[in-house]
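hey so i finally got around to running the thing on that chain from the lab meeting. sorry it took forever, my laptop kept dying and i had to restart like 3 times. anyway pasting the input first so we r on the same page abt which one it is
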Amino acid sequence: MSKEIACKEEEGPLGKLIVVPKGLYNVVPDTTTISGVDPKGEHTIYRGYTIADIGEHADFYEAAHLFLYGKLPCEEEYKEIKKKIDTYRAQIPEKVLDALRYVPKTHPMYYGAYGVTLLGQYYGTDWRFDDDFLYEHALRLIAQLPVIFTAGWHLANEGTIIRPDPNLSHGKDVLRMIVGRMPSDLEARAFESTLVLYMDHGFNASTFTVRVIASTLSDMYSAIAGGIGALKGPLHGGANERALKMLLDAKARAEAAGKPLEEYIEEYILEKLAKKERIMGFGHRVYKIHDPRTDVAAKFIKQLKDGEWWLKVMKKAEEVMWREKKLPANIDFYTGVLYYQLGIPVPMFTPIFAMGRIVGWTTHYIEQVKNNRLIRPTEKYVGPTGLKYEPMEVRCKK
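ok and heres what got predicted. didnt touch it at all, straight out
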């Protein structure tokens, strides 16, 4: 580790302080058996499996079972988790949906934070920490968060709610509630794969937020509301929205210039780089050469509308960014295009991220409270000292 990001020790009023890099870069605050980057830095691991393997082959129920219970399910276990998620999805309290009718039209991430907080008032008031209790509430949140997001979105934009159908698979039903039509099996599978790819990614900002709140022994609903707030930021979950908006802007400019986008995209990126503008969808704190999640998304993009053309555009953009900045594309660059192909409104991109990440959040909550210690770092104060209070008539005459 280079000197500018290395930890160092200093003396403080209570003894030795370990001063860590800003942003906790390369700092390991705890261990986990849930997910993380393999020792070679080539793959993210989901409970022992590569994220690419699970993302391509496991359905939502299998992946959720892997996270919560530590292993892929057998037939009876699969039937049980599927039944619970599908049943809970259709059992959201009617008063929660009624409350969403009064939320102003805004970014849909607010609907999720608001709705989850309301769910906590129904289910989280007498909070406990025994296994059965925790896992049931995790499954409830996994099932109902998509309903909250989609209900808030449609109420704000159309004044109606598209109700969940427990007879459909989770991924297909959630996509149906988002786009307002019955998706094809291919569309549903492509969408479901992104939920799995987004389920977890180590101690990312939102997951760490969830663990911090969990460490206070607050309830799971409060912790998830905090995670949603962290995910909303454009440097975290909001990146996929901005990546797609950038591509659509490039597409419009290419059409105005009478040039194919797969050729114009290089000119577009170079122009933005010359202006010191950030190219969204590129770079990652962990993946410095390649984000393996993009390989899975690319396989589905290829099968959807204009897939071959989109991949040409994206590969050209990747070539330019690697040549100019040595930055690889990340999963947000790919899911932005995939969601666009599915006809999903851009403001719903980050909520979909949360619909997948809720599996990781709830699992991390359980892991944290089962081996808990309050997360409370010590600050290094660098402000003034020795100031003395003066009455207003004295201090304001100076």
